[in-house]
Amino acid sequence: MNDEKDYEYTAYSKELVPSARELRKAMTPQERHLWYDFLRDYPIKFYRQRPIGAYIADFYCSKAKLVIEIDGSQHYTDEGKKYDDNRTEVINQFGADVIRFSNHDINVNYEGVCIVIDREIKKRIGDFSGR
Questions:
Q1: Distance between CA 37 and CA 20 in Å, rounded?
Q2: Could you please report the per-residue DSSP string of 39-69?
Q3: pLDDT tens column, 57-77
Q4: Four-point Cα dihedral 102, 104, 106, 112, nearest 10
Q5: Cα 81 from Cα 78, distance rounded (Å)
Q6: Which residues does 67 contact at the CB level (< 8 Å), separation at least 6?
Q7: Exposed, middle or buried by CB within 10 Å (0-12, 13-18, 19+), for 6?
Q8: Nearest to 68, CA basis, from 27, 108, 100, 37
């Protein structure tokens, strides 16, 4: 899938690009850990802080049509859960699925999180050389 089609597929919003850039600079420690120690060099391309529709996904793999979200405590309030449900629904409309991990998951079970992500990617696109 080339980038042009990918932008169309996800309703890439150029208006969100400045916000996405700021979010890349201000990643949480857990997002940084997952990005720099796993996703950045993963054999299948991931994007960080990727605009999708009216939202910015923490991490997005277009080939697997998968969004990975790393959730802090604000996501576990009633308001946060409702927002995340709406966000997931919109992302699903673009044919992508969302998997969520908490900051706590990254802190105490980082290797397990990486295994889950790797298995999900392989389930979606098949096994590949690399990992």
A1: 20
A2: ITT-SS--EEEEEETTEEEEEEETTTTEEEE
A3: 899 999 999 999 998 756 556
A4: -90
A5: 5
A6: 52, 57, 58, 59, 60, 91, 96, 97, 98, 99
A7: middle
A8: 100
Pair 112, 119: CB distance under 8 Å: no
CB 42 within 8 A of CB 84: no
> Which H helix or E strand runs over 31?
helix 29-34
- Which amino acid, residue 53? G
Residue type for 75, please? H
DSSP 5-18: HHHHHTT--GGGHH
pLDDT digits (tens, 9 = 90+) for 11-38: 656 666 555 566 667 789 999 999 999 9
pTM above threshold 0.85 = no
- Identity at 125, one-letter amino acid code: I
- Architecture field, domain 3-62+70-125: 3-Layer(aba) Sandwich (3.40)
Closest Cα to residue 51, out of 97, 8, 100?
A: 8
Q: Which amino acid is at 66?
A: L
Compute the half-sphere exposure of residue 72: CA atoms within 13 Å on the CB side of its CA: 7
